[in-house]
Amino acid sequence: xxxxxxxxxxxxFFVEDIGERDISTDLIFGNVERGEISFIAKEDGLFCGEExxxxxxxxxxxxxxxxxxxxxxxxxxxxxxxxxxxxxxADLLTGERVVLNLVQRMCGVATMTKRxxxxxxxxxTRICDTRKTTPGLRMLEKYAVRIGGGFNHxxxxxxxxxxxxxxxxxxxxxxxxxxxxxxxxxxxxKIEVETETLEQVREAINAGADVIMFDNRTPxxxxxWIKIVPDTIITEASGGITMENIASYSETGVDYxxxxxxxxxxxxxxxxxxVSIAAC
Length: 280
Known about the structure:
Blueprint: H1 3-18, H2 23-28, E1 34-41, E2 45-46, H3 50-60, E3 65-68, E4 75-76, E5 81-88, H4 89-120, E6 126-128, H5 138-147, E7 161-163, H6 165-171, H7 174-183, E8 191-195, H8 198-207, E9 211-215, H9 219-225, E10 234-238, E11 256-258, H10 261-264, E12 271-277
Parallel strand pairs: 6-11, 7-8, 8-9, 9-10, 10-11
Antiparallel strand pairs: 1-5, 1-12, 2-4, 3-5
Helix pairs in contact: 1-3, 1-4, 3-4, 4-5, 7-8
């Protein structure tokens, strides 16, 4: 994860929450009292977000000391202490909500991804995410997908060509859209085409697509359609795939399954923060 970008993000989040100052904390505590906060799991999950804790509290004060008991990618159980932070009470109370919100969210995405990978149970097909992320949190959520055992699709509109049904409609055809994109594209960027019919799959192949997506197709349809796709073309399935039916796609032979629910529907893992007075 890009620590420079992470630091900038956290600074913005702190500015949003703190504003001019933390009135409650400023009026009750001075700048001397020291304390300790512990991040405690209230349910099982997969941990993600240790850099959010370390960088977040370092922004508030370089004197804060972070002790991490569970690291990214490690499972945890209800009741486990995930991390402790020791420092001035004012700094701990001012920063704990922003950090906790992000860690709960990232653990939720990582846990959901791990479950999807387990449900699919395929040695060939990879799980990947989509652009259906929370605005402002894409880097963190896509990092959490990787921690959960998944892979990232394109990060944004800028790092890959994805020709969807609306592009095809406006362009007039798959061939026209691919031809125009290829004419202005560098050699390092792939072109993906979304298809809904066998005829579109054939056209995408002939047009020179690098990746073909089977959109809202059944496992049976994908198993048949993939037979005509050359091995040099990457295949992807998306749409209508849930945690309940994902296992039925494990034997289709598709290379990737992209799942929007990994990020747009992941439930935050329940984690609490407990405080104590630091020993002198």
